[in-house]
Amino acid sequence: MSRYALLVSAFALLPLAANAQELPARTIRIIVPSPPGAAGDITARVIAQKLSERLHQPVVVENQGGASGAIGMSMLRRAAPDGTTIGVVIALAQTIDRIQNKTGSFDIVKDFTPITAIANNPAGLVVNDRITAASLTAFVEFVRKHPREIAYASGGVGTAHHLYGQVLNRTAGIQMLNVPYKGVTPALNDLLGGHVPAAIVSLAAALPHIESGRLRLLTVFDTKRYAKLPEVPTIAEEMPGFVPGRTWIGLLGPSNVPAAITARLHDEIVRILNSTDVQQVLGENGLESIANTPSDFAAMIKEDAKFWDAAAASAGLLKQ
After folding, report:
1. pTM (2 decimals)?
2. DSSP string spanning 42-95?
3. 37-57 per-residue burial string, b: 16 or more CB within 10 A, e: under 16
4. What domains appear along the chain, each with residue ranges and CATH number?
5. Neighbours of 192 (CB within 10 A)
6. Which residues are paired to 30 by β-bridges?
């Protein structure tokens, strides 16, 4: 065979070699940049178990909370781009980081490789018996008559829950006070204990208390109704001027993960998310599956980072 023919044969095999690229045969880590128990942690553990079974290699979840998620996200950013370290991300990750850490610890568009969005994690306005209003309209009228007297609990400064309340204030012309907590769980605990009359929190966390009758859901911060409570209108229905940002959970790798490895992880994880038992677990936890492509997820990340940065800037929390 001539030297030219050998070169042609070698180059012809390059795409096959790229497609054959596999994950290293060692433990895969899923970094969760928050404490155990939140929606991102729940989904990560479900995925880890199933992914380990499918790949026949260990998959572990590492909770790396602190600095409003910046510690875990920074660990993911610095990880080797070989597919053995991936991480959970939320729609507001960059916005919260820029609010809390001023200069910002990472660029969510440039520093990571999108794999897939996992699920939508919508929030709602919930109240206890201290509020007699049975609808969002009645609640707004009540707050309007008591400016700066009605507080709502949120999962922290700069979270979607905090920003939803600020946008509601501006859109409805009311003055609720935000009481930020270190996470959704303590916010809900104080709402259930009667220490605050209202809260804006994830419906995944609030659902058991709504179903038990201890809390009432007045509106859903989304463009479509919540599947578990379809009788409750969305904020978009009740207040057309209110544009709710998305609050998804997704999976990223560090930047420059090879396309073949990204595709393998994506395909395996999407199969897991679309399985009947995982759909059931997500539904039981108030989450709505998304499972999109890496390119679609990349577009979501870019669009929603801009939306939430703008929302934070309009609330006076972030300079743009």
Report:
1. 0.83
2. HHHHHHHHHHHHHHTS-EEEEE---GGGHHHHHHHHHS-SSSSEEEEEETTHHH
3. ebbbbbbbbbbbebbeeebee
4. 27-120+247-314 (3.40.190.150), 123-238 (3.40.190.10)
5. 16
6. 61, 86
Q: What is the pLDDT of residues 179-200, one digit of tens each?
A: 999 888 899 999 999 999 999 9
- Partners of 17 in beta bridges: none
**DSSP letter assigned to residue 268:** H
> Rounded to whole angstroms, what are the CA distances from 156 to 10, 78, 84, 119, 245?
56, 26, 31, 21, 17
Cα–Cα distance measured from residue 6 to residue 184, given in angstroms and rounded to the nearest whole number: 63
Amino acid at 282: L
Amino acid in the structure at residue 33: P
Q: Are residues 247 and 90 in contact, defined by beta-carbon separation less than 8 angstroms? A: yes
Radius of gyration of the chain (CA): 22
Nearest to 72 by CA among 21, 120, 35: 35
* 206-234 b/e (C-beta count within 10 Å ≥ 16 → b): bbebbeeeebbbbbbbbeebbebeeebbb
Residue 130, number of CB atoms within 10 A of its CB: 12
The per-residue pLDDT for range 40-55, each reduced to its tens digit, is 898 999 999 999 999 9
